[in-house]
Write a structure and sequence with these properties.
With 72 residues, this protein is of the alpha+beta class. Helices cover 28% and strands 32% of the residues. The radius of gyration is 13 Å and the shape is globular.
Length: 72
């Protein structure tokens, strides 16, 4: 989440409107949700889709996150 935030700020994007989260292990959802919530402290959470998948191209990857953001 910190990496994505840094890239967004560097590009001038400042409002997240949608987040997609793909998890390999469904048991990671609770931790992922806690970390996710910490990055949106105003509790104005963007729309989000979270799902589990069976694999990623790199076997050591456990999740993938992408954001849709807008300039304001």
């Amino acid at each position: 989440m910190e990496n994505i935030t840094s890239v967004m700020k560097a590009a001038g994007w400042n409002r997240v409107v949608k987040v997609n989260v793909l998890l390999i292990r469904s048991e990671d959802f609770i931790d992922m949700n806690r970390i996710y919530a910490a990055h949106f402290p105003t509790e104005k959470y963007p729309a989000r889709t979270t799902t589990t998948v069976s694999s990623f191209p790199q076997p050591e990857f456990l999740l993938e996150i992408d954001r849709v953001a807008v300039l304001e």
